[in-house]
Write a structure and sequence with these properties.
The structure holds two protein chains of two kinds. Chain A is of the alpha/beta class. Chain A has a domain of 161 residues: Rossmann fold (3-Layer(aba) Sandwich). Chain A is built from nine helices and twelve strands. In chain A, the strands form two sheets. In chain A, strands 6-7-8-3-9-10-12-11 form an eight-stranded mixed β-sheet, with helices on both faces. A four-stranded antiparallel β-sheet of chain A has the order 2-1-4-5, with helices on one face. In chain A, helix 3 crosses helix 4 and helix 4 packs across helix 5. Chain A is globular and about 60 Å long. The model of chain A has no long low-confidence stretch (mean pLDDT 91). Chain B is α/β, with parallel strands linked by helices. Chain B has two domains: 210 residues, P-loop containing nucleotide triphosphate hydrolases (Rossmann fold, 3-Layer(aba) Sandwich); 75 residues, no CATH class. Chain B is 31% helix and 22% strand. In chain B, the strands form two sheets. Chain B has an eight-stranded mixed β-sheet with strand order 6-7-8-3-9-10-12-11, sandwiched between helices. Classes of the chains: A alpha/beta, B alpha/beta. At the A-B interface, helix 5, helix 6 and helix 7 of A face helix 3, helix 7, helix 8, helix 9 and helix 10 of B. Bound molecules: adenosine-5'-triphosphate (2 copies) and magnesium ion (2 copies). One magnesium ion binds next to helix 1 of chain B.
Chain lengths: 282, 324
């Protein structure tokens, strides 16, 4: 059984389908990448899975249990196992709370540990994400963008969840600290059998850490599969355009960009198997 | 004004935060120059003072932060730090456009995005009320927002992260500034839209001789678009030079470590990262701020902060390895 099984998920905002009938699974301990056009519905998908917003229709199964049917207390319990790192490190941290309180809050909500144990764990967590424990007494606005992102990561992993939905968790970090946080996420994964739904625009990073990847375009998954196959043999026009636009940190690199012709894309094409473990809507 | 005289020349700019934990010098004697039609890429460690440098130039640092030093020469003015706030307000958004790092807080949640772009045009007299709507649609199209007419009526919370970022870019470009300070302008965008936005900026550089201060963590973007690059660590510019030279032969060990940290070939392997933790700005070591983490450190490094040594044509590095 998959850890997370999303079936025919739909989210409608007024006249617009932000998420338009998508299905995918995330296995225990897997890193599953979700990439795609800005505005294609990645964040909305993540929020629907946790029911931070209510999906319009579809099913979300977590270890076989129907998340959409959960009562309030069941949902609270499930959220201990499913955490999220929000995309926007600025507005997602409570400005009136000190970093210590922000990271400690999940323990208090779920009544875990004594005061002393919680304090020790909080110090351990900030160290894990590479922040100085002296920063615990400070407020979010006193930190740079990347520092706030690390506070969000520390909070998300606090309760040893089994699934972390990481929405651009390292996009505000320089590549060296990004490497530290990514190494940390991978270590935690090994230690705790954590699974990640990793939403990102950095395709090099996705290629590096995700076993499987789905590509979204206008609310649909247009291509999905084993990351290496998908990157080496892209089928959908959007995927091809996307991969051709990756900037390279090489002054002599001349990108051969493929421009997308939206008129050529058939949004009703169903996903079909291109090769084992590789689907595309072509 | 002549093209080769710098449009912006910043000297010894310093911003200090006095906190209960001590004095943190977020921007420490930063000097930089930018010509019209030129792009300076500002890169460096998260928390090293890139955004604060931008805010300091714009005089938008909030207390307890305090900016001093200078001068900041800009477009014929001797020192922006000396101008009355009223004059500074006329420069912001008109001569200097800026894109802040935090798209959500930079937009006003109670106004539609159409109103906010139109407002920017009206305030600086770039359009009449009658023209504003058409210009707004034009700008949204330029930043690749699908279906701009419908989007005019959206509030910021109805947009995705990347759409908000593009609205900010539209606002910054509305007034056709001479200088654009762009703080992580494309981090929330997929690479196809990112490439189109960067093309748009290139086009403005050509057409209007826009000068661009581009703050980004994406070294691929810097390699593709910057003419020169400055690298920050713990409040200081530790290396500076033509982009090509710095990328092909970095001189400061921090720059070397940074370039080596880019995710590379072997999937699933640990990524290279610079060892150690980011320095606490309130408790910097007496010598080079990078010394505790530097694989090439020697005795001199812990004595005093290194000065900027010349390390080639138009290049400088604050590192004792280059003391000749
Ligand atoms: N609360 C809301 N009300 C109305 N529309 C919304 C709301 N939230 C999101 N949308 C719309 O849903 C679509 C998908 O947005 P979403 O934030 O999921 O995109 P995304 O793929 O995460 O994009 P990005 O890469 O830019 O973060 C967008 O068209 C957006 O405008
Ligand atoms: N209000 C404040 N009080 C104390 N320190 C502050 C305050 N605001 C910012 N700082 C400190 O100033 C330093 C520089 O921050 P800045 O936002 O310029 O970093 P940055 O280089 O832009 O980082 P990032 O890449 O993460 O955005 C940080 O170390 C931060 O902790
Ligand atoms: Mg998003
Ligand atoms: Mg910043």
């Amino acid at each position: 059984m998959a850890l997370l099984d999303v079936r025919h998920l739909v989210k409608q905002f007024g006249a617009m389908r932000a998420v338009n009938d998508i299905s995918f699974t995330v296995e225990e301990g897997e890193t599953f990448g979700l990439v795609g056009e800005s505005g294609s519905g990645k964040t909305t998908t993540g929020r629907c899975i946790l029911r931070l917003i209510e999906p319009t229709s579809g099913e979300v199964l977590f270890r076989g249990q129907n998340v959409l049917g959960f009562s309030g207390s069941e949902l609270r319990q499930a959220r201990r196992n499913m955490q999220i790192v929000f995309q926007d490190p600025y507005s997602s941290l409570n400005p009136r709370m000190r970093v210590r309180q922000i990271i400690e809050e999940p323990f208090i909500i779920h009544r875990i540990g004594t005061r002393q144990e919680r304090r020790e764990r909080v110090v351990e967590l900030v160290r894990l994400v590479g922040l100085d424990p002296a920063s615990l007494e400070r407020y979010p606005h006193e930190f740079s963008g990347g520092q706030r992102q690390r506070i969000g990561v520390a909070r998300a992993i606090a309760l040893n969840p089994s699934l972390v939905i990481a929405d651009e968790p390292v996009s505000a970090l320089d590549v060296s600290i990004q490497a530290q946080v990514v190494n940390l996420l991978m270590e935690l994964q090994e230690k705790l059998k954590l699974a990640y739904l990793f939403i990102a625009h950095d395709l090099r990073l996705v290629e590096h850490i995700c076993q499987r990847t789905a590509v979204m375009y206008l609310g649909k998954i247009v291509e999905m599969g084993d990351t290496r196959r998908l990157f080496s043999n892209p089928q959908h026009d959007y995927t091809k355009a996307l991969l051709s636009a990756i900037p390279e940190p090489d002054p002599d690199y001349k990108p051969a960009r493929i421009t997308l012709d939206p008129a050529r894309i058939d949004l009703n094409a169903p996903l079909r198997e291109i090769e084992p473990g590789h689907l595309a809507a072509v | 004004m002549s093209i080769d005289k710098p449009l912006l020349r910043v000297q010894d700019l310093t911003t200090v935060f006095t906190t209960p934990g001590g004095r943190a010098t977020a921007v420490d004697h930063v000097s930089l120059e930018l010509r019209r039609g030129e792009t300076l890429g500002l890169v460096g460690e998260s928390g090293s003072g890139k955004s604060m440098t931008a805010l300091s130039i714009l005089r938008l640092v909030q207390p307890p932060g305090d900016t001093h030093g200078g001068p900041i020469e800009f477009n014929g003015r001797a020192d922006l730090l000396e101008l009355p706030e009223r004059d500074m307000r006329a420069i912001r958004g008109a001569e200097i456009g800026f894109i802040f790092q935090e798209p959500m807080t930079a937009l006003n949640p109670v106004f539609t995005i159409g109103d906010q772009i139109a407002e920017a045009l009206l305030v600086h007299g770039k359009a009449t009320r009658a023209e504003a709507r058409a210009k707004t649609i034009e700008l949204l199209t330029a930043v690749r927002i699908h279906d701009p007419v419908r989007r005019l009526r959206d509030y910021p919370h109805q947009l995705s992260g990347g759409m908000r970022q593009r609205v900010l870019i539209a606002i910054a470009l509305a007034c056709q500034p001479l200088l654009l300070i762009a703080d992580e302008p494309t981090t929330a965008l997929d690479v196809t839209i990112q490439a189109e936005i960067l093309d748009l900026l290139e086009e403005m550089k050509e057409r209007l001789h826009l000068a661009l201060l581009l703050i980004t963590h994406d070294l691929g973007v810097v390699a593709g678009h910057a003419d020169r690059v400055a690298v920050m660590y713990a409040g200081r510019i530790v290396e500076e030079g033509p982009m090509r030279d710095v990328f092909l032969a970095p001189k400061h060990p921090y720059t070397q470590g940074l370039l080596a940290s880019i995710p590379g070939a072997a999937p699933g392997q640990r990524l290279h990262a610079i060892e150690g933790t980011v320095p606490n700005l309130a408790k910097l070591p007496p010598g080079c701020a990078f010394e505790p983490r530097c694989p090439q450190r020697f005795e001199l490094c812990s004595t005093a902060p290194p000065p900027a040594y010349n390390v080639g044509q138009g290049r400088a590095a604050r590192c004792y390895l280059h003391k000749s």
